[in-house]
């Protein structure tokens, strides 16, 4: 990847995390990146296309961070604990990417935002939620998760709960415990 393209992406991440898609202009991103506006359009056909790459990269980083942490873990209770801890770690250590997701999630999920790009953004977010739902389903199959818990609803709740508010360590620990206790079936 070229240095200029990477500078543009870094500037866009920061700008979108601070003011959101609607609050940022291509001119501002160019200024932050130290490039001409035309160079942004050389790499990205529109502001939406640029945002799509930032959004997809943020979700890929999140998935890499949290799912890598549970690879090879066979004991489900440890797996779900590590998953939640890794999620909080991502939110607290990768603040810019986390803020992009949290700030723009309502706009991405809003059905009023139509068009191919917004549809792809929604689809990409739903892929992430599905991966979390599969983790919950695994616990149900092993009879470790309450049988009446809907995996997709639990996944959406986890994705909503893990936000910038978890940057406060005591709140993050309480949130992890609350989610864990709500999911795990007592033996």
TrEMBL record:
PROSITE patterns (UniProt xref): HTH_TETR_2
Keyword entries, A-Z: DNA-binding, Transcription, Transcription regulation
Record-annotated HTH tetR-type domain positions: 2-62
UniProt key word Protein transport: no
Known DNA-binding region: 25-44
Pfam families from the UniProt entry: TetR_N
SUPFAM superfamilies attached to this UniProt entry: Homeodomain-like, Tetracyclin repressor-like, C-terminal domain
InterPro entries: Homeodomain-like_sf (IPR009057), HTH-type_TetR-like_transc_reg (IPR050109), HTH_TetR (IPR001647), Tet_transcr_reg_TetR-rel_C_sf (IPR036271)
GO molecular function: DNA binding
Annotated PANTHER family: HTH-TYPE TRANSCRIPTIONAL REPRESSOR SCO4008, TRANSCRIPTIONAL REPRESSOR
Official protein name in the record: Transcriptional regulator, TetR family
Organism: Pseudothermotoga lettingae (strain ATCC BAA-301 / DSM 14385 / NBRC 107922 / TMO)
């Amino acid at each position: 990847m070229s240095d200029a393209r990477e500078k543009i992406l870094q500037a866009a991440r920061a700008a979108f995390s601070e003011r959101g898609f609607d609050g940022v202009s291509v001119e501002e991103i160019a200024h932050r990146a130290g490039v001409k506006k035309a160079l942004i359009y050389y790499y990205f056909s529109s502001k939406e296309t640029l945002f799509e790459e930032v959004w997809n990269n943020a979700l890929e980083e999140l998935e890499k961070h949290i799912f890598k942490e549970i690879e090879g873990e066979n004991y489900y209770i440890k797996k779900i604990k590590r998953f939640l801890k890794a999620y909080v770690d991502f939110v607290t250590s990768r603040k810019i990417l986390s803020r992009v997701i949290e700030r723009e999630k309502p706009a991405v999920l809003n059905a009023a935002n139509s068009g191919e790009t917004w549809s792809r953004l929604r689809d990409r977010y739903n892929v992430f939620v599905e991966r979390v739902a599969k983790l919950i389903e695994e616990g149900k199959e092993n009879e470790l998760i309450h049988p009446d818990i809907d995996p997709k609803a639990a996944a959406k709740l986890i994705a909503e709960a893990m936000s910038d508010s978890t940057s406060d360590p005591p709140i993050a620990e309480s949130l992890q415990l609350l989610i864990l206790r709500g999911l795990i079936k007592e033996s």
